[in-house]
Amino acid sequence: MATDVQVPTLGESITEGTLAQWLKKPGESVAADEPIASLETDKVSVEVPSPIAGVLTEHLVAEGATVAVGAPIARIDEKASAGATPAQAAASASTNPAGAGENPQLRGTEHAPEPATATAEASAGDDHITTLSPAVRRAVLEYHVDPSKIRGTGKDGRLTKDDVLAAAQGQTSAPEAKAPAAPAAPAAPAPQAKTPAVGGERREERVKMTRLRQTVARRLKEAQNTAAILTTFNDVDMTAVIEARARYKDLFEKKHGIRLGFMGFFVKACALAAKDVPAVNASIEGDEIVYRDYLDVSIAVSAPKGLVVPVIRNADRMSFAEIEKTIADFGKRAKEGTLGIEDMTGGTFTISNGGVFGSLLSTPIINPPQSAVLGMHRIEERPVVKDGQIVARPMMYLALSYDHRLIDGREAVTFLVRVKEAIEDPTRLLIDL
User: Fold this and answer.
1) Which of 88, 193, 220, 423 is the most buried (most CB within 10 A)?
2) What is the CATH number of the domain that holds 393?
3) Are strands 372-376 and 380-386 parallel, antiparallel or unpaired?
4) Could you confirm whether 296 is annotated as catalytic?
């Protein structure tokens, strides 16, 4: 009995996504709830689980296709034998009238019988390449490397583009090794192979923007078009925080099982400052201003497919340990691609730490409908005057971008000064000053 695998609910107001990658190919057995495909939405990547245990008999859409919530994308047979070839899956599908909706590109490739002269090794190579993402497949064809001989460093051992490039460089350094033949029948139409640029030759590559990148571009432009964005700057002496971390980091990790980082101090400092300047944590809705007695902080986190901003709920009521554990969990799940829509909605204020990438100074853009964002930057020793003496201190530039329609310059500067005071004297965080 065949069961259709449908696109799951992707979150509030999200009606479609892009099928980014097939994780299982026809003929492979799958367990109930085992991921068989990866979908990319406007905000996150979502894995599609199998509703039953059985054998994946066919793909109904190709990688890169746009699919609506509830649409069938694959078919699983509870009674089919594991290891069925794509040709057998296609033959089985031909007896099922529902197979008429199958994507014609896939019907001509993945479900085509293997040539009688093909060797087992070549067949295995073809199967392997069908599981690659479009970007990785393109790199494999371009650099003429054998994907079956490359160790993947991605999730669940999957190949990444960097893996292919590293293998290609190793192949170039060993000229006596013969490049393996290009796959005879890739799963999807592939661009013509390109040779490395030599003798001043120039080339271009066009890559379709991901849904996440398109959404980021649209929202950032909307922010510039709607809000009156202004940025104010200050610098902060990190000596006290660095000394506090050095003094208590071992005890903190031993008690809470997590390292004490800088972000916990800044989240607590922003929560304290927001009490004095509530407009920074407010937003404009129509002709009304919405003030909040809670602080949900969006933390910008780097993920393989771009920047994501999961939300620390009720950050103003959390301890240092709770904040650090939440941030560590977000970072881990961002790398794994397992953050959900619910993790990234509802923030009231954003903190972005460009310092981890080496940024000295920036003007961050607010994330609508929020009205402000704090930008942290790298720590570096700079000469400053203390008690009439020029001394070296670990300094960090802070930038607060804000919506001038709601927040006056006086309020923005006051907020940033409160953050600076709390970081330079962390005792204020304990006695609420």
Assistant:
1) 423
2) 3.30.559.10
3) unpaired
4) no
Please say whether the beta carbons of 67 and 19 come within 8 A.
Answer: yes
Q: What is the mean pLDDT of residues 375-402?
A: 95
Cα separation, 153 vs 111, in Å, equals 29
* Domain range for 103: 2-172
Q: What is the pLDDT of residues 322-360, one digit of tens each?
A: 999 999 999 888 888 788 778 888 899 999 998 888 899
- Has 404 been annotated as catalytic? yes
From 126, 408, 425, 432, active-site residue: 408
**Same domain assignment for residues 136 and 226:** no
Which candidate in 4, 144, 235, 404 is catalytic?
A: 404
Q: What is the mean pLDDT of residues 213-223?
A: 81
Number of domains in the chain: 2
For residue 402, the surrounding DSSP H or E stretch is: strand 389-403
d(CA 51, CA 46): 15
Residue 58: inside a domain, yes or no?
yes
**Section 210-230 average pLDDT:** 83
pLDDT digits (tens, 9 = 90+) for 61-79: 888 888 888 888 888 888 7
Q: Across the strands, what pairs with 46?
A: 39
Q: How far apart are CA 299 and CA 320, in angstroms?
A: 15
Q: Number of C-alpha atoms within 13 angstroms, CB side, residue 325?
A: 11
**In a shared domain, residues 160 and 304:** no
Q: Whole-angstrom Cα distance, residue 200 to residue 20?
A: 35
CB 132 within 8 A of CB 159: yes
Grouping H, G, I as helix, E, B as strand and the rest as coil, residue 363 is coil
Q: How many alpha carbons fall within 13 Å on the CB side of residue 61?
A: 22
* Residue 178 or residue 3, greater confidence: 3
What is the per-residue pLDDT across 121-162, written as a single tens digit (0 to 9) for each? 434 444 444 456 656 776 777 777 788 788 888 766 778 877
Q: How far apart are CA 265 and CA 277, in angstroms?
A: 18
Q: Where are the alpha helices (DSSP H) in 277-408?
A: 320-336
DSSP calls for 245-285: HHHHHHHHHHHHSS---HHHHHHHHHHHHHHH-GGGG-EEE
- How many C-beta neighbours within 10 Å does residue 230 have? 14
The H-assigned helical ranges of 15-146 are 86-94, 104-107, 120-130, 134-143
In one-letter notation, the amino acid at residue 264 is: G
Residues 158 and 240 grouped into a single domain: no
Mean pLDDT of 34-48: 79
* Number of other CB atoms surrounding residue 66 within 10 Å: 11
